[in-house]
Amino acid sequence: MAKPCKPQDAQSRLEQIIGLGERSVRKNYYPQLRENAEQVKRFRALLDFASDWIILLSLQPFQICDVNAVVCQFFSLTAKDISNGRHRDLMRQDPESSFCELMHHLKQLTKHHDDNEGISSEFWIEHKGTQICLELTCRLAKFEGQSFITVVGRDMTERKQHQQSLQRLLNEKEALLDNALVGLAWIKNRTIQTCNRKFEQMLGCEPGQVNGRSTHDFYENAYAYQAFGDEAYKELANGHKFTGRVKMIRQDGAAIWCELTGNAINPNAPDEGSVWIFSDVHEHMLNQEKAEFLALHDPLTELPNHNKLQQEFIRYSNDLANNHMMAIVSLDLDRFKNVNDLLGYTESNQLLVRIGQRLQQYIGRAGIVSRQGGDEFTVLLPSLSSAESCLPLLNRIHAALMKPFFAAQQELSLTCSMGVAIYPQDGEDFDNLLKRSGMALFEAKASGRNTYRYFNEAMNEAANETLVIELGLSKALELQQFELHYQPQIDLKTGKLIGAESLIRWRHPELGLISPSQFIPVAEEVGMIVAIGKWVLEEACRQVKIWHEMGFSDSVIGVNLSAVQFTSGNIEQTVRDALKQAGVSAKMIELELTESIILKDADNVLEKVHNLKQMGCRLSIDDFGTGYSSLAYLKRFAVNKLKIDQAFIKDMQHNQDDDVIVRTIIQMAHNLGLKTIAEGIEDPATLELLRSYHCDEAQGYFIARPMDQAAFYEYLSALE
User: What are phi and psi of 266, to 5 degrees?
Assistant: First the structure.
């Protein structure tokens, strides 16, 4: 048994034992503790230098156990401020703070977290007026029977901004592609890999319906697919861009014209990938086709026009067999203006369409029907054995038009006039033949219409003369080539001179003296007659003033007026100006009207005639008896004199009918209070016969021929 030690010995023993323990701890435990402490210190430094947030949460109770430095820096707090439950004080002080938002979010995030699987959450938090995006990752950890949550927060703001920018660019690109005005497609081995929405819309497909389909599905046929592909991929293989137009077929079967532009990704293997732009050129192509059609066809009847007929003429003339001929037939509907007035513009146009169709039906393959304009058609007969072999066809044309047409509840039978020119005998070029068939047509119309004429050289000579006249008229007034001739008129009772009729002549530098019957119709047609008529009036007024100054104070000058002057010009003002310019009175001129003037727009002419009468002008009806004048017109127009046409005067001695007509006109005129004048008197017997019938006045070759100004002055001087 051990012996108890003394107190002082016990204390000393205890100190020895403790000393031994301290030495043992120092020797065995302190180095390990120091090493552990250093590891903790290094780990803590590592956590504090990490850029990610690190938070250790306990679940029971829910509080922050520890945080790293980046969390503290973000909230401008220390770890002591927020750990071990002190975060609650901060939350009570500022419940709207960003720290408070974080704690609420973490509490919700970890509420039901009872496994070892990590959970992630995206959390946006405001910091100094800037929104920060944190990716929070939580993982459950258990230690000594307690549950902890480690939270790692990573600042994703910059990445989010990059993602948003990238997404925005992708969205903009997608919107740009889908809203592009052209279709875009990536094609590999002639199969559509991907495309934009516009391309799908062009082909009438739903979204995604095109991808994966062969382009063959959208071509008209296998030939079009193969031909376009061969040409396109040949260019792509050469490193070139390819552009071409092709008709494609939509999903609903409708055709659409597209312009395709493609580029190969790798020219060495263009089939492996190419990008194509599809432009909708359907309307453009339709308009182009329409424009090309209208360039060669009449827009109303859709028959070939002049240009198309010329092309066909050239084609057939190049292939014409030996000893064969061609004919150009110019066709004009007789008096179609009357039909136009009757039916109106719209119905007349529809009638022209049906006429064109009927001509095509009756002519068939024997010729080509063309519309030149208005009621004028041209027929090309491309293969004739002789000039006469087209006669049966001309007769068929007449028969076709005679067959009734029904328009606007009217039954119409039409006739036509035709002119024929033969290739090559009448000409070897299209324009010359067309011109000559037109000359023959003019001759057919002049021959009473409803017939045909072949061209001959006499027509060409007449046409050339007309052309010379037409071209020369425009300069004739300016070059003072017109002159007036005067044919005296006498009183049959006294034999004295009462005046003269002014007759215009044209002294042409090449053709010599041209009579009015040759150039007046041309002047009316080209619109020169009003200006010429004005010059005649002015010159006539100037001359009659000279006659009066020479002592023939009762003399009157007769001036012929054209119907065009009444319809196209201001005849009253023209007469007024001419009288004023010459300084003569209206009673010194006698205006001669033809019956055609009276019959054309009678009410308008009547008003102008009354105005001229009120001015004091004398009025006579020229060539009376040859037109359609009636007693009613004579009464309404209140003219002063009737001029008996020379056609009745010339043979009245030998033709009883003419004699009766002359006597009747004279008697009727006297009963109406009108004077009469006979023209065309060429012998004394006729003059005496007219005197016996009490005709008032006379003119003709027997009395005096028409004279130019100098000769007429001599004639007047001889009378003095």
Answer: -130, 105
User: For residue range 41-84, what is the model confidence (pLDDT) as tens digits?
Assistant: 776 777 777 778 888 888 788 888 888 888 888 888 888 888 87
Using alpha carbons, list the distances in angstroms from residue 494 to 202, 315, 490, 497, 694.
Answer: 98, 76, 8, 9, 12
Q: Residue 448: how many CB atoms within 10 A of its CB?
A: 9
Domain 476-719: CATH class, spelled out: alpha beta
What is the residue extent of each domain of the chain?
Answer: 42-150, 180-287, 302-455, 476-719
**To which CATH superfamily is domain 302-455 assigned?**
Reverse transcriptase/Diguanylate cyclase domain (3.30.70.270)
Mean pLDDT of 608-621: 88
Residue 136 C-alpha from the chain's centroid: 68
pLDDT for the residue numbered 9: 62
Q: Where are the beta strands (DSSP E) in 321-433?
A: 325-333, 368-373, 376-384, 405-407, 410-412, 416-423
In CATH terms, the superfamily for domain 180-287 is PAS domain (3.30.450.20)
Complete DSSP assignment for 635-646: HHHT-SEEEE-H
DSSP readout, 68-93? -HHHHHHHT--HHHHBTTTHHHHHHH
Render pLDDT for 225-254 as a digit per residue (tens, 0 to 9).
999 999 999 999 998 999 998 999 999 999
For 695, phi then psi, to 5°, come to: -70, 140
Q: How far apart are CA 618 and CA 675, in angstroms?
A: 11
Could you tell me where the beta strands, DSSP code E, fall in 618-680? 618-624, 641-644, 675-679
Q: What angle is formed at CA 184 by the lines to CA 181 and CA 188, rounded to 5 degrees?
A: 170
Q: For 376-395, how does the pLDDT look when each residue is reduced to its tens digit (9 = 90+)?
A: 999 999 888 888 888 888 88
Fold of the 42-150 domain:
Beta-Lactamase (3.30.450)
What angle separates helix 457-476 from helix 516-526, to the nearest 10 degrees? 70
Closest-CA residue to 619 (of 609, 627, 628): 609
8 A C-beta contact, residue 667 and residue 639? no
Q: How many Cβ atoms are within 10 Å of 358's Cβ, its own excluded?
A: 17
> What's the pLDDT tens digit per position in 91-117?
788 777 888 888 888 888 777 666 556
The answer to whether 42-150 and 180-287 have equal CATH topology is yes
Query: Residues 309, 368: contact at Cβ < 8 Å?
Result: yes
